[in-house]
Amino acid sequence: MASAKLIKSLEKIGFLLEFPEYDPIEEEIIEILKENNERITLALPLLLSYGFDYAIICKKINSKQKIEFDKAILIAERIYKKENIINNLKETIKKNKIKAAFRDNEYERYYDSFKEARLNAEKEEQKTIERQSKLRLNLDLNKSLRILFSPAKIRIMDKIFNHQKLTNTELKYYYRAISNIDKAALNPTLQDYLKIIEITKKEI
Predict the structure, then answer these.
(1) How far are the Cα atoms of 18, 105, 124, 131, 195 from residue 13, in angstroms, in the given order?
(2) Residue 21 pLDDT more than 90?
(3) Which of 27, 54, 79, 119 is least enclosed, having the fewest CB within 10 Å?
């Protein structure tokens, strides 16, 4: 499998690698446990609220991994209680008589990682909303521009908007055929007039 460093480097130049998603969730939990990497194991509380088959997972991990798994379940249950996250871990713990000892600093490490991951997820969600909003605004803008201006005029305005230098011919064309339309569109009196027309026509 490609290294994380290579994947990130390729993503920077627009090359996105697609990997199969884990289905069901037990496969992802097992994979995390088999990594035997404390940093990766911290991700378990992000997954355990979705529901999982404890018996299936335990059949596919060794005794050391099971200890870490049980510990993560107990810590996750405590985190969910603190964060008021709906889950069924208490039933899983009771049914399977899960017991494991963990220190306060271990809990804090899991909890800090959990909060950081949730914050990162919220930031990514906000970025997605902003990108979608910007896309919708661009679509609306392009639609309005196509109504008012020809493709040639739009190309010249795009060059100006993107701080690209116009040729002498384009500059002359801008002042002759575009500038007056721009000024008229920016006139607040005209905007008020058009708003009144839009409102009034609905009543006619």
Answers:
(1) 15, 40, 20, 19, 45
(2) no
(3) 119
